[in-house]
Amino acid sequence: MALKSINPTKTQSWGKIQAQFETIKSTHLKELFKRNPKRAEELTVRWDDFYVDFSKNRITKEIIKSLIELANEVDLKDAISKYFEGDVINTTEGRAVLHTALRAEKGSEVYVDGVNVIPEVFEVKQKIKNFTDAVVNGKHKGHTGKPITDIVNIGIGGSDLGPAMVVDTLQFYKNHLKTHFVSNVDGDHYNEIIKDLNPETTLFVIVSKTFTTQETLSNANSIRTWFLQSLPQEAISKHFVAVSTNIESVKAFGIDEKNIFPMKDWVGGRFSLWSAVGLSISLSLGYDNFESLLKGAQKMDEHFKTTDFDNNIPVIAALLTIWYNNFFEAESEAVIAYTQYLNQYATYLQQGIMESNGKYVDRSGQRVGYQTGTIIWGEPGTNSQHAFFQLIHQGTKLIPADFIGFVESLHGDKDHHDKLMSNYFAQTEALMNGKTEAEVLAAFKRTNLSDDEKQKLLPFKIFEGNKPTTSILIKKLTPESLGKLIAMYEHKIFVQGIIWNIYSYDQFGVELGKQLAKTILQELNDDAKHTSHDTSTQNLIRFYKENRK
Ligand code: F6P
């Protein structure tokens, strides 16, 4: 059954939330803490190894209650069942959305077109495990008999960002294999990567759900040409494997059927790292770590599916986005992770969040009359404190931020970790409390400034504070906790899409540029004077053609 189409702004709760917004919009977070001494406790969710503190958000329990009423009015419960049960909720592409089935427990049942897909999921997982073990322990050798030392993942978007982010984030758990990612069609990208590689000891994993993506096929073709300069055609079978739904095109590329790791069309690209798309994760970290990643996600699935909304981490997180995006008119959200390991996390989330919820047509085919998808961005702390934090503290924009931190450091450097985490705690406190006039004046007393100088400086030194943050504190960065964290954001995306009444699982918006690029590519290589473009584009193309070598 399809998802319902309910305009959220026409619900009873929307009006109620609007009224609540009017009463709270100028209230300072400090005041909310003063009014309710139990606030921190009441607005924190403890689950497994996660401690999620929502209390530094500009909400109250009553507002959360109204936001939950909104979720109920749009029938989020029904949508969650449809999501997990394999209903065709990606209606515009006529597909189910079942990345959750990829991490389901053995023996579960999830049906697509009357067929339980779980046995096949486990068959592919077994294939991933067998291949991983063979490559890692050196049983799988290259064409000249040497063991594999390097893995190159060739893919883009969901066929790159998820695996690249996970491998980088979990590098502490990595085995001896060196992993590289080629994504951009920019030839400098693949050339930089292959320049130090030995084809005899390198395994190339071509990942493309459709196997039609220009970037991936160009990179794969160029790399194969480079490879064949040193090794014969029959070496391909030892050095090239592929992950795709498009088995025929992979075979036509020259890859043996036994070297194809299949995936299903009910796995969206940006949610596919749990499928065979995660092959390079498994190869880099070992299969057991890949399995732990899946286990973590499965635990978050259970939490999301079975927990009441008022204690449900992805649901509350999504409702907060609605609150800031649609009532405070905040346009973006920051994700600041206090671990260098999560360096690529915001980039990864950008595809998940912005490709999913960047839509202006609702599920009835009408243009929405309200804001949808948020802009997502971020960098790890503490580096970002020295880059863009000024704007979050004293700029004119409201930027709700997620602060992700870990109790334990992986290398166990307590001194550094305490310093790191003192910043983690200090920043959310500073963003909330700001610095009052009285505090600035008190600080001035310890200086030699004249009264005149103090008066002049005063307005610049005051911080309004009242900047909302959510603190996500996790015991330790492990494959399992990362699996939970990723799944948490996946479900947050889903809930937002349900409430905004949009289809989160297609991405037609990225197609137009691809089509135009195809036409322009032909024009770049002929001598005709093309006049079909606007004059700006025409002149740019002309300048490029006239000046290239
Ligand atoms: O950017 C559009 C997109 O279709 C993404 O959704 C997808 O992850 C990416 O291209 C790569 O697609 P494929 O895996 O089919 O090569």
Structural commentary:
- With 549 residues, this protein is an alpha/beta fold.
- The chain has 3 domains: 8-73 and 307-433 and 468-500, Glucose-6-phosphate isomerase like protein, domain 1 (Rossmann fold); 127-291, Glucose-6-phosphate isomerase like protein, domain 1 (Rossmann fold, 3-Layer(aba) Sandwich); 508-547, Phosphoglucose isomerase, C-terminal domain (Orthogonal Bundle), CATH 1.10.1390.
- The protein is 47% helix and 10% strand.
- The protein has helices at residues 12-24, 29-35, 39-42, 61-73, 76-85, 118-136, 161-169, 187-194, 214-228, 236-239, 247-253, 279-285, 287-306, 313-327, 345-357, 389-394, 414-433, 437-444, 451-461, 479-500, 511-524, 535-547; strands at residues 44-47, 50-53, 111-112, 115-116, 150-154, 178-182, 202-207, 240-244, 260-262, 332-337, 375-377, 401-406, 469-474.
- The strands form 3 sheets. The chain has a 6-stranded mixed beta sheet, sandwiched between helices. A 5-stranded parallel beta sheet has the order 6-5-7-8-9, with helices on both faces. Strands 3-4 form a two-stranded antiparallel sheet.
- Helix 7 links the parallel strand 5 (150-154) and strand 6 (178-182).
- Helix 4 packs across helix 14 (313-327).
- The longest helix is centred in the C-terminal third of the chain and has 22 residues, at 479-500.
- 6-O-phosphono-beta-D-fructofuranose (F6P) is lined by residues 156-159, 208-210, 213, 216, 269-270, 355, 507, 510.
